[in-house]
Amino acid sequence: MPRLPDPARARYNLEMTAAKSAAVDAERWPPPERAHILSQPDPWPHTRNHIAMFVLAVRRRDRREALGQIVRIIVAAPGSVSGRYPEGNTGRARVGLLDPMPIPPDLAALLRPVAP
């Protein structure tokens, strides 16, 4: 089963914490988007990330985003297990479900496998 490298997992947790502690709505979306990029190779964090995005969308009363996250919650784990996910995709409903996007360099470095 796919697993995140430890540095990517640590950053994922930091980004998810940052999303919860953001003081204003405008600051709440970038951390889970970055966490999503990191979480894609691992089924549980990937699904957990979409659940968090769903909760945020519901709190903001963003119906379109919430519905988009429901679909993404359903396909997150199978996509991670099969390795069929769009790398770099931020996971938002306004982004195509299968559209790859550039990975920010700081996150790409964390996703590189660590040599044994």
TrEMBL record:
Origin superkingdom: Bacteria
Alphabetical list of InterPro entries matching this protein: DUF3703
Protein name stated in the entry: DUF3703 domain-containing protein
Natural source organism: Nocardia aurea
